[in-house]
């Protein structure tokens, strides 16, 4: 029994080192600036009133945007940045989208952005981090709470505002 226990020690040591390394790598990869949220009801009301309070940036994969998106939204695919760590592609996509939406690669100081992702988490978080890195104020960036999932679950009133 003593020999079996001694054989487990190196294995347990390696496993613990791997777990520690994974935890450290995860902490260094994510920037995670605090996100602020806009509820789906507030965004829906803004769209229905014809307001231009928010520039809607759909940061999901372009294929998903092409399948269905909130009316008036611009696509800015953040999959390469979010899943692959390719921040340069994420920033380039954001700059192209902001140029199209605002006439400037970094938007304008008075603009507010509503980020739509799948569930209001990782894609929006990555886009938030990159936009702040680009010099856009965190006060201008809002994440749609619950993302496209919450929008689609909102019922017919919400589905009527999809393209």
From TrEMBL:
One function term, GO molecular function aspect: transferase activity
Q: Which SMART domains match?
A: RHOD
Which InterPro entries does the record match to this protein?
Rhodanese-like_dom, Rhodanese-like_dom_sf
Q: Where do the Rhodanese domain residues begin and end? A: 50-160
Q: Which domain of life is it from?
A: Bacteria
- Which PROSITE patterns does its entry note? PROKAR_LIPOPROTEIN (PS51257), RHODANESE_3 (PS50206)
Q: Which UniProt keywords apply?
A: Signal, Transferase
| Signal sequence interval, chain numbering | 1-25
- Matching SUPFAM superfamilies: Rhodanese/Cell cycle control phosphatase (SSF52821)
Output this protein's name.
Rhodanese-related sulfurtransferase
Species source reads Anaerovirgula multivorans
């Amino acid at each position: 029994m003593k020999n079996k226990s001694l054989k487990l020690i190196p294995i347990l040591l390696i496993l613990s080192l791997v777990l520690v390394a994974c935890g450290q790598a995860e902490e260094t990869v994510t920037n995670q600036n605090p996100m602020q949220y806009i509820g789906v009801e507030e965004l829906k009301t803004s769209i229905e009133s014809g307001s231009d309070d928010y520039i809607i940036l759909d940061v999901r994969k372009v294929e998903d945007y092409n399948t269905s998106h909130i009316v008036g939204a611009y696509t800015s695919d953040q999959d390469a940045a979010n899943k692959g760590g390719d921040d340069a592609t994420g920033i380039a996509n954001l700059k192209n989208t902001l140029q199209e939406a605002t006439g400037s690669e970094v938007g304008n100081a008075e603009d507010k952005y509503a980020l739509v992702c799948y569930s209001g988490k990782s894609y929006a978080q990555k886009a938030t981090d990159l936009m702040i890195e680009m010099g856009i104020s965190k006060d201008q960036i809002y994440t749609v709470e619950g993302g496209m999932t919450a929008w689609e679950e909102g019922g017919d009133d919400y589905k009527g505002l999809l393209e």
